[in-house]
């Protein structure tokens, strides 16, 4: 273990002695810090330490994706074709959007069982207003989103203000909003959405120029590098530990490899789908909100210790109601993408195994069911796992019956990993 | 000690249903002194603390802050006056790191975004001045020991620059070494010129750091002792009411009767 002082400025001969003699403001911090060794070895060391103490993060899900892709790729080469992977990148958006809302709710340690019905309801609201009543499509879109938000707010109210367990409120909502959707759809049962409708276009538009995908990848990687460098420089100026340059470069290289590989595959087929771009931008924004704003910190605090959050002056009812409102809104967003995908809103919208899939996606992605731990990126990774399994099994011609059983098993496996990692976190004193 | 008290309670009372939890309670706390509040279970220590902290506002009596009467209805009122309370359950968020916990509810921001760098810097400075030893300010609080969690909770109460800090049983669940760390920290609070109210069951801890010891018994003041001029036995007898036994009451009554007959003291 090195002294933390070495982290702040380059080690010089006699530096330690100079620090001891000079009565500086903070020489004593050094000895008590767990300081990572610089360079690659330190990185591996810390990785091992985290692994032992059960901080698995997104590692299991990344391994899962690799296994799933290897297995299906070896069973049928069509799975890893550019066309299938491009389709997959579009298909996961609807599920992933709803899963983003579930991640918020899971961060509080709660659950929302209504998001499937809410997504169907909002798709129906849009379809009926726009297609049947001829309302302006943007206005209809806004009304559908506002509907999702209002539904979430109602759940949040009964949970946060009345004190009904969230699980029961949203279970009741699951049935009630499904009923309202059938009511909205009326006798027709199915409303077809024309392919030039805004909802259909949001889903199906693809930027065909190869430049689009590459520029997006380059901008994303560039912003990441810039943010990392600026942060490191500010930390150095403030004399607090910062990421070493080697690590920043390593992280950037990994991200760049993934981003440009994805761009290359998308360009092999048709190009960058708009839906995927919207999803990724939204994830970056929401990730920022969760990790870098006071509101995000409040969500984590309520998920970690309700009483602690309350004593720190955080309005727990506000956080709870707003989180359920976000879950409802994201359910609406996802529902609209799913409606755009099949170009209709029908009585089966938001039904079937959608609810299970989105909850599975959030949990598989690495967001803990126990609250306070997780990241919005788990919505993407989890949706990718679920989507890959379904896509692979469809290619292989596996029946629905078997698909359900396998998806259920994967969810169980994810929850087991979550529970086990929580147990070893406890053993390592981290839970 | 001629200095005016920062916080003084006069005749404070609180009733919960049929229980008079606190009656006619007086307490004064000056800057740079540690006042221990001791008493048996149910003696009213927690009620007194909650009255000061604004959790359960008192029914009657006066609370004065720097000489002027104030009303404390909510925890927020107490905090904005400069009264910080560290409860026994600490109320730390295990999933957040030390910096996140220290600044929870008072996050520093820069362009509307959390200023992690400055918060980390200030956390280190604060922990340094208090000589608090923790492995890293960036690990989750869950991985700290009980004593370290207690010191983090106390450090957190200092973020808002309070004048009075209330510590509710800070050493109750700690081992010997960790208790010593917390007691060192209490002395450092005194050196910083803060008034500290220390609630404790442990007479050894109380005698080690307190300047004055206020005893509560059955919701009433039952003696105020200067540490220098008292003994543990004296305080314990005030806590248990040993000085108020059947024998002492009989003696007192006989004395009163004699005085009433005009015989004077024997």
Automatic annotation (TrEMBL), chain B:
GO terms for molecular function: ATP binding. Residues 7-243 form the ABC transporter domain. Residues 254-266 have a biased composition (Basic and acidic residues). CDD domains: ABC_Carb_Monos_I. It comes from the Bacteria. The keyword Magnesium does not apply. It holds the Pfam family ABC_tran. Gene3D superfamilies: P-loop containing nucleotide triphosphate hydrolases (3.40.50.300). Keywords: ATP-binding, Nucleotide-binding. Residues 243-266 are annotated as: Disordered. The keyword ATP-binding applies. This is ABC transporter ATP-binding protein. It comes from Streptomyces hydrogenans.
